[in-house]
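agent> fetching stored inputs for the dihydroflavine-adenine dinucleotide docking request
agent> found them:
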Amino acid sequence: MIYDVVIIGAGAAGLMCAAQAGYSGKRVLVLDHASKAGKKILMSGGGRCNFTNLGTTPQHFYSANPSFCISALKRYRPEHFVELVERHGVEHVEKTPGQLFCATSAKEIVRTLLTECEWAGAEIALNTKITRVERQGDAMQLSTSLGNIDAGVVVVASGGLSIPTMGATGFGYDLARQFGLEVFDTRPGLVPFTLSDTWKARAAELAGVSVPVAVSAGRHCFNDPMLFTHRGLSGPAMLQVSSVWQPGESIMINLLPGENVAASLREARQVTPKRQLSTWLIERFPKRLAQALLEWYPDHDPTRPLAEYANQALDQWAVRLNAWQLKPAGTEGWRTAEVTMGGVNTAMLSSKTFEVKGLPQLRFIGEVVDVTGELGGYNFQWAWASGVACGQSC
Ligand code: FDA
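agent> prediction call returned; pasting C-alpha cells
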C-alpha cells in the first residue's frame, strides 16, 4: 500500500486535512483505531457541536508560543467553515454571541467532513491499529493491522488525552518523542472542579443551581455561568478557569459580578432599614442558593433588619459575595476534560505547513500540538485551520 499522505486520526483535524490533501490531487489514507470517525465531534456541544466561534483571534488560545497559531487561523477563518457547512445544508444557530452550534445534531458536521473526504477521494480505514511509524529514506513506513503502508507524508492528528473511553491515547506524544521532539507536560483543561469535605457536601446540596459569576485565577478572569454539581463546580466559568488553574491554588469567585456588595448593602440599610438580609439575598440569587448562603455563614440572625448590621458585618458579606476564595480539591481529570493543555512543542514545527523542521515527511496538527483554545468553539476552529494549512501543503 502506497499513499502520498497517511493521516493518523479520523477526528476533526484529520478529516479536514484529508479532504484538503485529496483535493490537491494527493492519494490520501486516514487511519483510526476507533470504530467510528469523529467521535468527539459527535459528543461535543451537548450533541450539537459548537463548531466555531466568529470572534476567533489568537488571544483565545493558550500555548508556550502564542504566535504559532496566527498564520493558520488567519488563512482559514470561521467564515470559511460556516461557508462549508452551509454548502452542505447544515443549519446552525448562534447561542451565545459568536458561538455557532448545529441547529439539529453534531452528526451534520461529521457528515459534512466525510462527504468532503469522499469527494476528495480520501480513503478512511477505521478499526486499524498502528504499531510502528518509521522513516524510510525520504518517505515513511507504518506497520498496521492492515499491513505495511508506505507514505510520502505522515500527519499525526491523534488528538489529546481527554476522554479515553472515546479513543483518546498518548500515541501522538509518543511518536513525537520517538522523532526527538519535545512534548510539554499535559494536563486536563476545560474540566469541572472537585471539592472536598464540607464544600463538596454544600455543592452537592445545590446540584443543578446555576448562577452568573466572574471567576479568577492569577491574572485570568472569566464572566460566565457557574453550576453546582454533586462533585463540585462546573459550568462555563469553571471550565474556563480550570485551564489556567494550578493545583493547590485558590480561585476567586465573584457571585455578584457588576455589583459592589459593600456599597449596595450600605445603601439598602439606609433606604430600607427594616429589610432583612435574607430578602436582599433572595432578590439576587436563586432561592436555594440564598438559603444556603445564610446557612454557610450563620454569624448573624438573618431575620434581623439591615439597620442593625454594623459596617464590619456588611463588609464581611461583601467579601463572601464579591470575593469568595475557594480552594478546589482537584478536577474531574481526563474522564470529563474537554481538552488537553500542553503537548507537542511548536518550536519544532512550521506554522505554515505543520511539518517537523528538518523532517517534512512528518507533521502534527490539531489538539496534539501545544495550542489549546478557550471554551466556545475555538478548539474546533483550531482543528479546521491547522488541518487545512497542513492538507493544502502536503
Ligand atoms: P480528535 O480527538 O477529534 O481526534 C483524534 C482521533 O485520533 C480520534 O478519532 C481518535 O480515535 C484517533 N486516535 C487516537 N489515538 C489513536 C491511535 N493510537 N491510533 C489511531 N487513531 C488514534 N471543541 C469545540 O471547539 N467546541 C465544542 O463544542 C467542544 N465540545 C467538546 C465536548 C467534549 C465532551 C470534548 C471531549 C471535547 C470538546 N471539544 C469542543 C474539543 C474538541 O472536541 C477537540 O479540540 C477536537 O476534537 C480536537 O480535534 P483533533 O482532530 O485534534 O482530535
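agent> quick read of the result: The CA atoms of residues 138 and 359 lie 9 Å apart.
agent> awaiting further instructions
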